[in-house]
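User: Second chain of the day. Same drill as before.
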Amino acid sequence: MRPLRIKFPGALYHIYARGNDCQPIYLDEEDRHKFSEIFQKILNRFGWNCYDLCLMNTHYHLFIETPETNLSMGMQNLNGIYAQYFNKHHDLVGHVFQGRYNAIVVDRENYFLELCRYIVLNPVRAGIVEKPEEYSWSSYRQMVGIDESMPFIKTDFLQEHFGSSSETAKRNFRKFVLDGISSDSPLEDTRGGLILGKDEFVESLRDIMIDSKNESEFLKRQRYADRPSIEKLLDLGVRSVKEARDKAIYKAYIEYGYSQKEIADFLGLHFATVSRIIKNEQYYS
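Assistant: Same format as last time:
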């Protein structure tokens, strides 16, 4: 099955890709320089904005904005060109990346800063370095003014969120990043491996995703990433009235793709009871 992609003008994505069989995708500094060079050309060619980046040994993280709906074409170019270089440079054959890249569409209002912090802290959480500025291949050093090796990183958001002057913004951003070392990953809130956002943001994507609901080539968890939680669909008020509960069960199964087992487990009902309710509601609908 191929992954579902949510695409619209101005979409913000957390992109990550892993090496095949968890193997390294960078074997030396030249590899990272080459990837960075290819990525910068992709940014220019497709008009993307990059707000954050981290190149680990076995995977990479990108935080990009696509003013046009050209994510798939750009990523195909990035991974394809780099894979060709990598195999040729190291006299290898076969896949460099493990399957397709992952693309999570991000709620700008609620997760932009959290994700920026999460990405640059990857080397610290992995135990590679003690401080984010010690890692050369994330955008942190560019963002706080230590060096200018990644001029393609957009840093203007720092002053917007962290201070009116450049120095104040950088100082406050440093503190913000360090304060997040022990924080939980914001990616734990991702829905269906596809959407990182609050309920309002998820609901705003429903019209965009509607055509994918019945496309079996996409993973089910991604086709229904925009659905309400089962707790919300079958809340206490609904469960207290049998007629309302049965209609909500039918809606959860038919419209939002929850399995009969998921519904039964949540409500503490027998699987056969849920199956009977769905059949009855289907008959009378």
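The mean pLDDT is 88.

User: Great, on to the next one.
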